[in-house]
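User: Hi! I have a protein structure encoded as tokens and I'd like to know what sequence might fold into it. I'm fairly new to this, so please keep things simple.
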């Protein structure tokens, strides 16, 4: 019961953000597939690892900004690592 109440409270605290993303159409299509997979996993309640390859010196140089002007590059990542892990709970 407590777990259900926590889930309900968390759902009520969701916020909406709007992003502007500029990239080649094929890169945007790939990004939409990744976002769709995340959404589908959440819909069915399945936890999975998603591997996303980013060719940083190739066509994958997309630009992302939040419409509320929050700096998207505020958190530095270690670009010397071959694998960068993030988790979504």
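Assistant: Happy to help. Inverse folding works backwards from shape to sequence: for each of the 89 positions I chose a residue that suits the local structure. Here it is:
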């Amino acid at each position: 019961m407590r777990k259900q109440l926590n889930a309900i409270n968390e759902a009520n605290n969701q916020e909406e953000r709007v992003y502007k993303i500029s990239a080649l159409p094929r890169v945007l299509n790939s990004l939409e597939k990744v976002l769709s997979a995340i959404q589908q996993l959440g819909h069915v309640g399945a936890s999975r690892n998603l591997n996303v390859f980013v060719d940083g010196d190739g066509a994958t140089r997309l630009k992302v900004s939040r419409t509320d002007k929050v700096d998207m590059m505020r958190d530095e990542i270690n670009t010397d690592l071959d694998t960068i892990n993030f988790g979504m709970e």
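A useful reference point when you look it over: The helical segments are 2-12, 25-44. Feel free to ask if any position seems puzzling.
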